[in-house]
């Protein structure tokens, strides 16, 4: 339903996390379509992460971890299995993404002191009758 709006969300993004449910094979198939769309319409240097959610439900797994990892490797994406319910590998996922996002700071401060804010003089416009 909202697929047409998707490019608006990832335009200019530094990273994308595409999530599938390890207990539903169809979500993994759908994930591949999202990856194709992201590669076609997203930024060329976007960091892609694939997260297999619900790893706490291993007994009803339909998507094998090796299959998902092999796919992620084939598209040069980060791969991790997570559990949003039990907070498994959530922090690790974001840490790995932050490591791979290229720095946009071309002139970092050498002293580590940061920068100074200066107030710009305000321009008052007056009109006369």
From TrEMBL:
PROSITE patterns: RAB, RAS. SMART domains: RAB, RAS. Residues 101-110 have a biased composition (Polar residues). The keyword Nucleotide-binding applies. InterPro entries: P-loop_NTPase, Small_GTPase. Gene3D superfamilies: P-loop containing nucleotide triphosphate hydrolases (3.40.50.300). Residues 101-129 are annotated as: Disordered. Pfam families: Ras. Keywords: GTP-binding, Nucleotide-binding. GO terms for molecular function: GTP binding; GTPase activity. The keyword Nucleotide-binding applies. Belongs to the small GTPase superfamily. Rab family. This is RB22A protein. It comes from Sula dactylatra (Masked booby). The gene is Rab22a.
């Amino acid at each position: 339903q909202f697929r047409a709006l998707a490019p608006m969300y990832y335009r200019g993004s530094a990273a994308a996390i595409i999530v599938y449910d390890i207990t539903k094979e169809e979500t993994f198939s759908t994930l591949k379509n999202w990856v194709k769309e992201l590669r076609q319409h997203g930024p060329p240097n976007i960091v892609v992460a694939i997260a297999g959610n619900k790893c706490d439900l291993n007994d009803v797994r339909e998507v094998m971890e090796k299959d998902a990892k092999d796919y992620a490797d084939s598209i040069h994406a980060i791969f991790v299995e997570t559990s949003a319910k039990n907070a498994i590998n959530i922090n690790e996922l974001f840490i790995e993404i932050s490591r791979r996002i290229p720095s946009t700071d071309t002139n970092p401060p050498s002293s580590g002191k940061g920068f100074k804010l200066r107030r710009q003089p305000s321009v008052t416009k007056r009109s006369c009758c």
